[in-house]
Amino acid sequence: MYLNCHSYHSLRYGTLSIDDLVCQASALDIKELVLTDINTVTGIYEFKKKCEEKGIKPIVGVEVRKGSELLYIVIAKEFSGIGEVNRALTSYNCDGVDLPLQPDFPNCFLIYPLRNIPKNLRDNEYVGICESELNLLIRPEFQRLIPKMVILHPVTFSTKKEFNLHRILRAIDNNELLSKLPENEVCSKREYFRSPKEILDVYRNYPQIINNTNVILSECSFDFSFETPRNKKFYTGSKKDDFRLLTRLAFTGLEKRYGKNHQQAKIRVDKELKVIDELNFSGYFLITWDIIRYSNSLGFMHVGRGSGANSIVAFCLGITDICPLELDLYFERFLNENRKSPPDFDIDWSWQERDIILEYIFDRYGKDYVAFCGTNVEFKYRSIIREVGKVFGMPKEELDELSKYPERVFRDEIVQQVQKYGKLLEKFPNQRSMHSCGIIISEEPLTNFTALEMPPKGFPIVQWDMHVAEEVGFEKFDILSQRGLGTINDTVKLLEEKRGIKVNIKDTRISKDEGKCNEFLSQGRTIGCFYIESPAMRGLLRRLKCDNYKVLVAASSIIRPGVAQSGMMREYIFRHNNPDKFEYFHPVFEQQLGETYGIMVYQEDVIKIALHYGGVSAADGDILRRAMSGKGRSLSALQKVKDDFFASCKQQGHPADLSAEIYRQIESFAGYSFCKAHSASYAVESYQSLYLKVYYPLEFMVSAINNMGGFYRTEVYIHEARMSGGKIMNPCVNKSEYETTIYGDEIYLGLMLLEKVGSKIAQLIPEERRRNGDYKSMEDFIKRIPIGIETLQILIFIGGFRFSGVPKNELLLKARVLLGDYKPERRFETLFEEPIKEYRFPELKRNIFEDAFDEIEILSFPVSCTPFDLLQTKYRGTVMAKDLTTYHKKEVKMLAYLISRKHVPTKRGTMYFGTWIDVEGNYFDTAHFPDCLEKYPFQGGGCYLLLGIVEVDFHFPTITITKMAKMPFIPDPRYAHDEEKRYETQEKMKEDVSMTFRSPYPQEHEIGLPRVKNL
């Protein structure tokens, strides 16, 4: 009876989750159910599982539409039938091939609506007849089709409220006011579940229609094994040849990594190869190796991270750069005999090179076999308010107000409707998008399992997310990108290009535990370095006096919310600084976690404690691991683990309060912790960037600027370059490139930093210069570059023509005389048809600081001087950042420039942590509590006078602010005669503001464990 059911995966159409759909069918004792979402198979695998749990026979298909026009409903006789419709949808989505009007799908049944019946119906083709259409059967043209008709009772919603929700979804989809939504865009008001008896009663006079419907239901099935691995099986073509090649490559790499006679490494390689072979994962390793081999052939850098770094075979193949022996990483965390699904390698490339790697994978393994995982982008409540409000006709101003205060109670009836339906839409899928990094490489054509779609980024996606992919039998390859790796890569290239220096940064021996680097590390001098540049991380490095690789590995993990939120970050800092002043929580902690002072730092540590202290089973340990990595999180499964943990602790005689505290710590890790190998991978990359920063600071900072990445805004990296001895030069049309570049110690800012200069012009300027030589003058520049007056003025103001020796004022007058109102595309017709007249301009004097205000206007920060030089006050503070550790518990007054602040909620209101530089250019940190912020709030970017008390916490000083005031700049000399504009420009000074909504970390007295010995 129910041949046409929609879930909310029929995007912006259906209103029922798969669970709701199946539960409602079960409540009516329905025995067969057909899921036919619109142009998608997103929900079919979840549907099969849910139906079988309820004793319902699952049948699947697709409702095929072109826009809002229903073409036909396809129902798969067996699983292969899904592939037939998937291929047609894929051609339509990805190649623009029109949907066939009468497709040849031999392993499917097709049901046509009355308004779209083909001339001749095949054996597997039927006509669907709705209840409202039964009166049409008196017509001769339809009477003759009764032997080919089936009951069509679509299901789209379940209540009147949900029907209204469906209408709202259709209005959102059509970007139309609800009141103007056409009827043909909306489903029938009868598309809800009715009992089988009711429906049969409606069609009682047409037994043949009922019989045809039952025939379809009886002849269809959905047989699918969730246990079968679906990834590409072999690299060479056979298991035997794969293992032979993997073994040869592993032992070749073993000799390269460890030398000829390293017995411990050889034993570990043999052991791992045995497990890899038994689990049939040789092909997976070789495919990953093949991708890395291609990357290396192009000279690209990559970082293999995640649990894959636990494998010595991965290390020997060059997939990772982490030695598992050095860090005592155990292979079982990555692969073990109980694991059925393939392992999961996470591999990073530079953001500039990732697409080249992706193109290789799609070309090498075939577009029919490779795709990105999809992801369902859900409706989010604040954006829902705007979407729903728009279709109700609310004006933008009201929507702005409503989205700011979504929970406020409004009397207006329309607003109440918007809030009511907005709440219902929360968590609904809104659109499908591309997973940021997860790629599937399949053994069979992917269209056997899903239709493919083509999002704007240009790589096809499957119609389900990574969790469904894993359930179906696919493990993704994570092909990631990051800007930190781009910075390292670009620095190495820049050194070779500009100075002829070749640095083999892949040789991690040069950048691990190197003396000068360790000194920088322990002082937190890590701005620009991957993962270790944020204020919190730099503070942690100083508190730990981190001066070696192994401590950095631990620091990379304890900064994560899991450890920090449990309060154990603070405890780790204490124990690291006072190794003789603590006691272990329990002997198990000493035995299992001695290396980290008895603190759970990594995912593995949590599992160790759950097993050895809690006594939970290995299976429960794996549930914990998956919960902590965010995979397959099941609240019911976690609750069972929790119950088992406490029952086992009680049985072993552990104190209840100790067990409760330990489980509190375990729980805080869920989804927010690293495995040790992942931390080690991060630490290696952090060291690589630090090595380059220490020994080649100017080239490194230029690369950081060009990669536009990192914790801070561009200005901070420019400041770092200046502090390292670089001379910062404004963009110049004869010296600058599109990106920032360096000549000796002179750093020329890139034209790309000029926001109001279009990227095409910014790229054309250096290209034209390379083709035809330097620009001789501004006039020569205008002849060669199609530029308008506004863009030309930006270049003049920033000093782009200073090589000419002509003052800015004179250049501006000339530009206006020469260009006036002309259009750049007509420059060859109208410009310079006659020799340029020489004009005599009056000599115009400029204030020394006019250039600085021009720079703030264009770049948002000054280049020709510091922000301190522009202050009205000559006061520069009584204490400098470098001396703060000597002022513990003392009040200090400082003048400082704001770099960044971080918002943290507390029970008493918002507090902030600030990062600043003093007049000497050194960084320091502040804390601002809610009561102080009420009287002395932040007022945007710029310089402030600060008063506060210094607190030195394990070598790291923080000033708790009691008063602060923003300091005024001198009046803008460019607007000497315009009172209103004289103080406008300083408002363009920026600050970095980051938000967190986590609760403050627990303090020592809030953690219920014994920790400090009574000495």
From TrEMBL:
Start and end residues of each Polymerase/histidinol phosphatase N-terminal domain: 1-68
Reaction(s) catalysed by this chain's protein: DNA(n) + a 2'-deoxyribonucleoside 5'-triphosphate = DNA(n+1) + diphosphate
Enzyme category, top tier: transferase
GO molecular function annotations of the record: 3'-5' exonuclease activity; DNA-directed DNA polymerase activity
Keyword Membrane in record: no
Top-level division of the source organism's lineage: Bacteria
Record keyword Endoplasmic reticulum present: no
Keywords: DNA replication, DNA-directed DNA polymerase, Nucleotidyltransferase, Transferase
EC numbers, comma separated: 2.7.7.7
Pfam family, one: HHH_6
Listed GO biological process terms: DNA replication
Protein's name according to its UniProt entry: DNA-directed DNA polymerase
Organism, as annotated: Sphingobacterium athyrii
Taxonomic lineage of the native organism: Bacteria, Pseudomonadati, Bacteroidota, Sphingobacteriia, Sphingobacteriales
